[in-house]
Amino acid sequence: MLPVIDKPAIQYVIEEASSSGISDVLMITGRNKRPVEDHFDRAYELEDVLVEKGKLSALESVQASSRLADVHYVRQGQPLGLGHAVLCAKPHVGDQPFAVLLGDDLIDPRDRLLEVMMDVRQELGGSVLALMEVDPAQIHLYGCASVQRVPGSWAEDRDVLEILDLVEKPGIGAAPSNLAVIGRYVLDPEVFEVLQETKPGRNGEIQLTDALRVLAQRGSTVHGVVFSGRRYDTGNREDYLRSIVQLACERPDIGPGFCAWLKEYVENGLPG
Predict the structure, then answer these.
(1) Which of 170, 179, 253, 262 has the most beta carbons within 10 angstroms of its beta carbon?
(2) In angstroms, rounded to a whole number, what is the distance separating the alpha carbons of residues 27 and 35?
(3) Where are the beta strands (DSSP E) in the chain?
(4) Burial of 69 by CB count in 10 Å (0-12 exposed, 13-18 middle, 19+ buried)?
(5) Which residues of 34-55 are buried (b: 16+ CB within 10 A; e: fewer)?
(6) Using alpha carbons only, how large is the chain's radius of gyration in Å?
(7) Which domains does the chain have, with CATH numbers?
(8) Which residues form the Nucleotidyl transferase domain (predicted)?
(9) Residue 43 contacts by C-beta under 8 Å, 6 or more apart in sequence?
């Protein structure tokens, strides 16, 4: 629920899913997450007040979040990791392919990453992960992929790689590449079977990376789409602030005035 300009980060994620054609959204929440549920619910009292005052633009903004998708909620009883959170979705998902979008990873809506991943799943089947090149000195902060090229111009045009192995937060010098797994997945439901058998790994958590590694190693279809677009990590304090500045500068309604102020501040107002 961290605000990014004038709406919470999670709304950007749901908007991304909705614009990619996903109409059914399940949120995995935990304790003290009730404000998330309230945000995507109708606020009838507030709407009535805005109607009475003729504030139709504000009314549209208030209603927008509740119109994005059919949103459902499941509470993760214990914080046992991303793999466990995904497993909590099994009764809702059933035997259908599904997307996983992490709430602190924002992908710029102009870059259409999720749509490309869904196309890859449609064309090649199996599971599809989003990969991003990072500084080798930072790869230990991520899940890391060992890959090989997929032949054919279709895959090359979309920068699609076959995933051979995955390592969760490899030690320095042990990473098979500088390709980090970022917070977008399109998964085949077979991952649930593996997650049910996956033992807790790093930090006592059930890692989604470990389950996907099992799928790749046993010959199931797992691909990665290399993303080189705009990504905003709201889980990191400095990146969170950069996200707000970048997105604000590019907003047509507030960008020109904000950029003018920012330029003046950088030139004249920075401390020191």
Answers:
(1) 179
(2) 13
(3) 3-4, 7-8, 24-29, 70-75, 98-101, 105-107, 127-133, 143-149, 160-168, 179-187, 222-226, 231-233
(4) middle
(5) eebeebbeeeeeeeeebeeeee
(6) 20
(7) 1-75 (no CATH), 80-235 (3.90.550.10)
(8) 1-244
(9) 62
Q: Tens digits of per-residue pLDDT, 93-144?
A: 999 999 999 988 888 888 889 999 999 999 999 999 999 999 888 888 888 8
Q: Give the amino acid at 182.
A: I
State pLDDT tens for residues 51-90.
666 766 655 665 566 667 688 888 888 878 899 999 999 9
Highest mean pLDDT among 13-22, 40-49, 80-89, 154-163: 80-89
Mean pLDDT comparison of 115-119, 135-139, 153-157, 267-271, highest-scoring range: 115-119
* Cβ proximity of 24 and 70 under 8 Å: yes
Closest Cα to residue 120, out of 60, 66, 160? 160
Q: Indicate the SS3 state at residue 223.
A: strand
The two three-digit tokens of residue 11, written as one number: 């709304």
